[in-house]
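Notes to self, Desiccation-related protein PCC13-62:
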Amino acid sequence: FPLNLEYLGAEFFLFGSMGHGLDRIAPNLTMGRPAPIGARKANLDHFTQDIILQFGWQQVGHLRAIKNAVRGFPRPLLDLSARSFAKVIDKAFGEPLNPPFDPYASSTNFLIASYFIAYIALTGYVGSNPNLQGSASKRLVAGLLGVKSGQDAIIKMLLYQKANEKVHPYGIPIAAFTNKISQMRNNLGRSGLKMKAFLFQNSTELKGRLEAMCLLQNEYSIAFERNPEEILRIVYGGGNE
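result:
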């Protein structure tokens, strides 16, 4: 199951940073299946491009590690078009943005889109670990989870440090985008609050102050988990696994 998510992350990060994906980097992993729809190089600043490129190579390593452990399957057909991401963002806001959101338009936009992707695999690994039987499988998932949580933390920190900056051309703060996405994922997952916003009002505990949440964690500072059904409800964007 995680192989699907690793293919998704690999193609998005590789195309976003370099303009090409697994067909050029590691064609043996695709097994001859069609290239992603609509994926392209993003308009990234040098620093962000360097980080996203590292993420891309990490995803390639993840694919190889999983396929060394289990037989796996060819790359599924992925829709990484700007239109696909725009539909997700429109759903998060409850109305169409004008112009439609384009994840490839800027570093900020790409990080917002990445905020949606890394979290899904992270919670999936946490959720799948109790179901694994052998020590080799548990070791593999622990290793994947370690890197995936690092990716998620870096994405969050890059967005968190400029949470109040406005996303061009909407004039909406970055924090509002992340908060809307978090709320949408909780709604689609249909399993309660498993993604907290960066900045949210908590008048009971904090007397009206804004609480910061830069890492994915519950009240015990432990990562949330999601089962495959929850993840599919979120990935497909319709709440139906």
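- Strands lie at 166-167, 172-173, 199-201, 210-212.
- The two ends are 13 Å apart (CA to CA).
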